[in-house]
Amino acid sequence: MTGSGSAAPSRALDNQDISHFVDTSDEWIASRTGIRQRRLAQPDQSLKTIAAAAARNALEMAGITPLDVDLIILATSTPDDLFGTASQIQAELGATKAVAFDLTAACSGFVFGMVTAAQFIHTGAYQTVLLIGADLLSRWVDWSDRRTCVLFGDGAGAIVMQANPDINHLLGFELRSDGTQNSCLTLAYQPQPRELTAETIVGQGNFQPIQMNGQEVYRFAVKKVPEVIEKALFRAELSVAQVDWLVLHQANQRILDAVADRLGIPAVKVISNMARYGNTSAASIPIALDEVVREGRIKPGDVIAASGFGAGLTWGATIFRWGK
Ligand code: COA
């Protein structure tokens, strides 16, 4: 784990601003979620440009150039192009030797991407992987629905993962999916029948804004996230006390507090920046990680427990050591 970077649109929308177009208040949002503002991409900004900015920062920290990258994985649910945005980022960076693809696992995307990247490194297929988590959920939020629109924001984070023949820094992981609970959180395609001939009708439609059962998702996260972290720690042969930092998907401060409490991890080890970004989906873990790395709080050798959870439903945890 040799470099990190992040980027977010400069336009900020605070809770007070939201109270001007839906019936809510700063007090309600902050006390229920810990969120105070979120960054929003403007219509002329793309996932590609924000993700590429985060990627450049990560490459710079790692001390490598785009030409050194073998593989780019873009974890996103909000591509600029449904055929994938990773290749556009590859071109934007000039990473001409890299193969690039998108990976979709909603708010778990970064954790799923880290494990995917590690498999390519462990087999010896690739030496240097650029893993990006980026989402612009503002494109897909129903801005008239106060139950969801207050939660989400836009941003991108990235890390560089490089082969080290001597040490494996991905110490343990556990990934899970449960499609039976898919309806708890969706951004679903809704087809409209379109008749081509008397016998042939195709379904052409649009994706519908985010729908969420907040209480179900809350219960799921608080129960499943500690379990999966404990499992990943078991695989890493580490105890909870050996975790230096807990970097959870930044969905809700109450979820962070409850998970840390269940695991017995003290608040000083829990990274939280959601007050400033809201829930940025696949970007939330790498943005939080990058901020703390750049503050110098996370140091080379520190053990990090990261966990993503969200739509799918998907959830997972990785235990890794920061640094070369
Ligand atoms: N402002 C003011 N009132 C709001 C509101 C808002 N933004 N959103 C909902 N309310 C109201 C509801 O309409 C409801 O009113 P009613 O009792 O008159 O019907 C009341 O607040 C309570 O709603 P409820 O849904 O029970 O609130 P909650 O305590 O469960 O908190 C969430 C709602 C969304 C903050 C919480 O469920 C949550 O964080 N869930 C997890 C969501 C998440 O993290 N999703 C992403 C995962 S990747």
Task: Report on this structure.
The structure is a single chain. The chain is an alpha+beta fold. It has two domains: 3-162, 3-Layer(aba) Sandwich (Peroxisomal Thiolase, Chain A, domain 1), CATH 3.40.47.10; 170-180 and 211-321, Peroxisomal Thiolase, Chain A, domain 1 (3-Layer(aba) Sandwich). It is built from ten helices and 15 strands. It has helices at 15-18, 26-33, 47-62, 86-93, 109-122, 146-149, 214-236, 253-263, 274-277, 284-295, and strands at residues 3-7, 12-14, 37-39, 71-75, 99-103, 128-136, 154-162, 170-177, 185-186, 189-195, 201-207, 211-212, 245-248, 303-310, 314-321. Strand 10 (189-195) and strand 11 (201-207) form a beta hairpin. It is globular, with a radius of gyration of 19 Å. The protein starts with a strand and ends with a strand. 48% of the residues are buried. The mean pLDDT is 97. Residues 24, 28-29, 32-33, 107, 146-147, 150-151, 212, 214-215, 217-218, 251-252, 279, 310 line the site of coenzyme A (COA).
Any descriptors?
about 325 residues; alpha+beta; Peroxisomal Thiolase, Chain A, domain 1; 5-stranded mixed β-sheet; binds coenzyme A
Percent helix, as a range, is: 25-40%
As for the CATH topology of the largest domain, it is Peroxisomal Thiolase, Chain A, domain 1
Ranges with pLDDT <50 over ≥5 residues? none
The largest sheet is:
5 strands, mixed
Number of domains: 2
State the total count of DSSP E strands.
15
Fourth-level CATH superfamily of the largest domain: Thiolase/Chalcone synthase
CATH level 1 name of the largest domain: Alpha Beta
N-to-C order of helices and strands: EEHHEHEHEHEHEEEEEEHEHHHEE
Alpha carbon gap, first and last residue: 6 Å
Q: Whole-number average pLDDT? A: 97
Percentage of residues in DSSP E strands: 25-35%
Structural class by helix and strand composition: alpha+beta
Query: Can you tell me the overall shape?
Result: globular
